[in-house]
C-alpha cells in the first residue's frame, strides 16, 4: 500500500510540473458574446439544442484525420479555437474537456482537462492543428492531476473565477454524462463523426440566461463554416506536400489539389 501511494505521489509530482508550466500566469476565460447580462447565477437556466452538420464537413474531417477518433477530436478543438479567435480576437484560448473514456479509472483522481493554446494570425491551419494535437496528447498523458489544483496553479481558484467557459467533447472519446456535467456556459458535444451510417451532430448545452437559442444556432453555423474551410485548407496543404509524388493521400484529387 505504501509503495503504491509513493508511486502515485511521484506520478502526480511529475504531472504537477507539466501543469504548472502550462498554466503559469493568469489566464482569462474566453466566452461567447451573450444576449443578456451575466448575473453570476450559474446553472439555473440550462437549455439544450441539437444540430446536424453537413455531410461535406464530416467527409472533410474524416479525410484529413483518416477516420481516427483522437484526430477528429483534435480537429474539432482546433476549429473551436479558430472560431473563438476570430470572434473574440483573443490569442490565449482555453477550452475544457473530459478525460478520455478509455481511462475512466482515472476518474477517481480527476475528470476535467483544460486545453490551452496560443492562436497566432500568421499560423497556417496545419501548424495550429499540430500544435493542438500536442496539447491534447500532453493533457491526456497528465490527466491524473486534479483539475482543482490546476485552478490553484493559475490563480483562478483564489479569485473565484473560471479557467474556461466553453467545453468540447466527442462521443467516441468522452463519456457524455461526465462531459455534460462539467460546469461551463456552453458545452459542444459532437457525435457520429466517424460512424459511416449516421449523420454528424452537435448537442449544445448553454446558459439560457445568457444566450438565445437563435444566437447559439448562429454560432454553430459560423463554427461549422470555419471548421470546414480550415479542414479544406489543411487537406490542400497536405496534398501540396505530395505534389511530386505519384501516390497522393486519399481526397487530394477530389479536392482539385492534384491540378498543378
Which strand order does the major sheet show?
1-6-5-4
Specify Rg, calculated over alpha carbons: 19 Å
Proportion of helical residues: 40-55%
**Computed structural class:** alpha+beta
Order of helices and strands: HEHHEEHHHEHEEH
CATH topology assignment:
Chloramphenicol Acetyltransferase
Number of helices: 8
State the separation between the terminal residues, measured CA to CA: 65 Å
Give the CA-based shape: globular
Highest-level CATH class:
Alpha Beta
Overall pLDDT score? 86
From the structure provided, what is the oligomeric state, counting identical versus distinct chains? single chain
CATH architecture field = 2-Layer Sandwich
Low-confidence stretches: 1-7, 244-248, 253-260
**Domain tally:** 1
Determine the strand fraction and express it as a percent band: 15-25%
How many strands, which pairing sense, and closed or not: the largest β-sheet?
4 strands, mixed
CATH homologous superfamily - what is it? Answer: Nonribosomal peptide synthetase, condensation domain
Give me the count of strands: 6
Amino acid at each position: 500500500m505504501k509503495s503504491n501511494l509513493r508511486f502515485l505521489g511521484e506520478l502526480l509530482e511529475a504531472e504537477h510540473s507539466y501543469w504548472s508550466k502550462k498554466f503559469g500566469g493568469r489566464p482569462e476565460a474566453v466566452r461567447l458574446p451573450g444576449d443578456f447580462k451575466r448575473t453570476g447565477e450559474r446553472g439555473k437556466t440550462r437549455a439544450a439544442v441539437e444540430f446536424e452538420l453537413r455531410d461535406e464537413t464530416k467527409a472533410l474531417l474524416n479525410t484529413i484525420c483518416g477516420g481516427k477518433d483522437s484526430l477528429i477530436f483534435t480537429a474539432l478543438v482546433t476549429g473551436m479555437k479558430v472560431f473563438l479567435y476570430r470572434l473574440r480576437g483573443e490569442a490565449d484560448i482555453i477550452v475544457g474537456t473530459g478525460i478520455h473514456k478509455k481511462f475512466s479509472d482515472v476518474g477517481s483522481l480527476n475528470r476535467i482537462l483544460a486545453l490551452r493554446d496560443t492562436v497566432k494570425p500568421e499560423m497556417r491551419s496545419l501548424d495550429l492543428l499540430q500544435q493542438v494535437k500536442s496539447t491534447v496528447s500532453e493533457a491526456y498523458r497528465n490527466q491524473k492531476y486534479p483539475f482543482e489544483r490546476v485552478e490553484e496553479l493559475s490563480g483562478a481558484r483564489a479569485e473565484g473565477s473560471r479557467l474556461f467557459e466553453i467545453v468540447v467533447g466527442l462521443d467516441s472519446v468522452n463519456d457524455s454524462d461526465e462531459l455534460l456535467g462539467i460546469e461551463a456556459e456552453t458545452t459542444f458535444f459532437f457525435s457520429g463523426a466517424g460512424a459511416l451510417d449516421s449523420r454528424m451532430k452537435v448537442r449544445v448545452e448553454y446558459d439560457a440566461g445568457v444566450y438565445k437559442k437563435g444566437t447559439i444556432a448562429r454560432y454553430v453555423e459560423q463554427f461549422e463554416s470555419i471548421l470546414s474551410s480550415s479542414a479544406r485548407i489543411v487537406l490542400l496543404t497536405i496534398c501540396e506536400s505530395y505534389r511530386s509524388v505519384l501516390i497522393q493521400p486519399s481526397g487530394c484529387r477530389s479536392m482539385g489539389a492534384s491540378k498543378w
